[in-house]
Specification:
Immunoglobulin-like, elongated, 8 strands, 2 helices, four-stranded antiparallel β-sheet
């Protein structure tokens, strides 16, 4: 086991030494990498888990729209625990819905919003879309959000 850890450490060091900055935007990618590493560390340690309260329903009815309209949905939440709340990932059930993953942690007592945009182009009829949220929360890391919209031709 010690050999595996040693070899893995050497590999990581060598890879880090051989990377070069080719663009001025690499500073941002390093910052993103650092944020992702911090999120991964928090997500792997259950001592860092907290509680989330959804301030609105986790199911929204967005009414009726004409085909081709863009629909924006927002799900508000609050960190009701005593540790920072980290939203590790937000995914949608299909490519017509694009969610935004908040990048910063939310302090205890702080509120935030999960936003998503739905493109109704080519999607006539009642649409039911799911958004999955992965966060450092207890009793479950997984949270399911859902919305419906009736698309008219």
């Amino acid at each position: 086991m010690k050999k595996i850890i040693f070899i893995l450490s050497i590999t990581i060091v060598l890879l880090a030494c051989t990377s070069t900055d080719k663009k001025s935007g690499d500073a941002n990618s390093n910052s993103d990498s650092t944020q992702q590493a911090e999120k991964a560390k928090i997500m792997s340690d259950t001592a860092n888990y907290t509680n989330i309260q959804w301030l609105d329903s986790t199911f929204l009815s967005m009414g009726t729209v004409n085909e081709g309209a863009q629909v924006e949905v927002s799900f508000r939440f609050k960190n009701i625990g005593n540790k920072p709340l980290v939203i590790a990932n937000v995914t949608a059930s299909c490519g017509c819905t694009i969610p935004e993953t908040p990048q910063q942690p939310f302090a205890p007592g702080e509120e935030g919003v999960i936003k998503a945009k739905f493109d109704s182009k080519g999607r006539v009829g009642e649409q039911r879309k799911h958004i999955s949220v992965d966060a450092n929360t207890t009793p479950s890391r997984a949270h399911d959000l859902e919305f419906t919209v009736d698309v008219k031709k």
